[in-house]
Amino acid sequence: MHKAGFINIIGSPNVGKSTLMNCLVGEKLSIITSKAQTTRHRILGIVNGDDFQLIFSDTPGIIKPSYELQSSMMDFVKSALDDADVLLYMVEIGEKSIKDSDAHKRIQASKIPTMILLNKIDLSSQDEITKEINIWSENYPKSEVYPISALNNFNTEKIINRIIELIPESPAYFPKDQLTDKPERFFVNEKLREKILLYYDKEIPYAVEVVTEEFKEEDSLIKIRSQILVERESQKGIIIGHKGVALKKIGTKARLDLEKFFNKKIYIELNVKVNKNWRSNDTQLKKFGYRG
Fold this sequence. Notes:
The chain is of the alpha/beta class.
């Protein structure tokens, strides 16, 4: 008997979804920073066993959209609610209910197996954890509630074992040697965007999109040429920095991480271009993969 299923991870921003995703898959597929809206796309991570295939899906944190890009991000969340075989809803210790009214109603009424994961329990006492488990179990009686620490990999093996019990009998959806649904260029773009999120403040990271125009793989070297898009000339100057120092720092930090990810030497060339108001432009959003 072989089992396979889609396990979709949703929750509010900064709750640790991407950390959990990477922990469950065993690879750093989703970028992680302390800033909200770090995850923009829906990213699949595939875990294979002899008789099962788990397809985990990391989604953007649930927010109220204020421009078109954010609306597209929330479309990824809606699709995750619709096509899951098992739904993982992540909250932090201290939250008492699901804030998004649509997600709240759908999870209460859902016939899909749902697991509510109380993350960051390493920051709480045992009494507080027990109290919160009881609150969530009472409010969402159809869901199973588990305390976890994604950062410390606590209880994640128990979660995986329970998911394997819950998913349906099915042949594998993806080849057994496949790790994700995203191409190499996607991870180059995400790694560069991660460094921008880490090293720049305020609006700059959210006005940035990254496009990899060339990914040329040789025996021991990968040559990459990527373009960083911003919305205004002033942002371009900030990204580049005095005498190009800031841009060089992004490239160096990203190159080191990409060498570990691809296990090859990386040569990366970066340039910065202004693309005005791309976050509110439907054509541009389609081009960058945020809309079908």
